[in-house]
Amino acid sequence: EDQVTQSPEALRLQEGESSSLNCSYTVSGLRGLFWYRQDPGKGPEFLFTLYSAGEEKEKERLKATLTKKESFLHITAPKPEDSATYLCAVQDNFNKFYFGSGTKLNVKP
Amino acid sequence: DTGVSQDPRHKITKRGQNVTFRCDPISEHNRLYWYRQTLGQGPEFLTYFQNEAQLEKSRLLSDRFSAERPKGSFSTLEIQRTEQGDSAMYLCASSLMFGTGVPQETQYFGPGTRLLVL
């Protein structure tokens, strides 16, 4: 069965301390991998779409990369306002979407 | 266009009551999805529409749940005879799916409706 696993479940960083979040997946043909940011009590906010292995996308302090088995969300010199839950989702060849449980990031000043 | 909107944002109801949620997608989007999210989990797929046609329903969607998208615009999700286990955030997302030429689609989410069943 298609699955999406995110790690770690929670991550605490000091402001300026760079790190990476992982999303590993098993899916029947990957059509797209998506990263979202979710603040408490709000809907997920779209960040990136990645289509094929080797692709990279960047936005401010965030950079997403994709391999055949996993994706990484790299956070460079994070700020407290980057604190949120980061969700990964995959779309398979049957147009089904599967979300991971998210990584809760807390950036301390 | 300001994005996907959902109404109400919060709903408290007693067990056994019926509730209805509304979602207004981004205007040019032809696909509309409903998800349920519980605390500490990612969104779980419930159902989706392409225009007015409901193309798929998750087995999570019991007979007490029904969704409509008349005229392919806004959508409603109704839960009949609510149970305490229905308490969750109900999320709506919309996307623009081209023909067969574009293999992937990006979903944009609304703010969600938080349901509490007492």
Can you describe this structure?
The complex is a heterodimer of chains A (109) and B (118). With 109 residues, chain A is mainly beta. Chain A is built from no helices and 11 strands. In chain A, strand 6 and strand 7 form a beta hairpin. The radius of gyration of chain A is 13 Å and the shape is globular. Chain B is mostly beta strands and 118 residues long. Chain B contains no helices and 11 strands. In chain B, strand 4 and strand 5 form a beta hairpin. Chain B is globular, with a radius of gyration of 14 Å. Chains A and B meet through strand 4, strand 5, strand 9 and strand 10 of A and strand 10 of B.
| Overall pLDDT metric of chain A | 94
As a percent range, the share of strand residues of chain A is over 45%
Fraction of residues in H or I helices of chain A: under 10%
Report the oligomer. Answer: heterodimer
The number of E-state strands of chain B comes to 11
Helix content of chain B: under 10%
Sheet with most strands of chain B? 7 strands, mixed
So how many helices of chain A? 0
* Poorly predicted tracts of residues of chain B: none
Number of strands of chain A: 11
Q: Biggest protein-protein interface?
A: A-B, 23 and 24 residues
Helix and strand pattern of chain B: EEEEEEEEEEE
Number of helix segments of chain B? Answer: 0
Report the sheet with the most strands of chain A, covering strand number, pairing sense and barrel closure.
Answer: 6 strands, mixed
Helix/strand/pairing category of chain B: mainly beta
Give the terminus-to-terminus CA distance of chain B. Answer: 36 Å
- Structural classification of chain A: mainly beta
| Inertia-based shape of chain A | globular
- Could you spell the SSE succession of chain A in H and E letters? EEEEEEEEEEE
Radius of gyration of chain B: 14 Å
Q: Report how far apart the termini of chain A are.
A: 41 Å
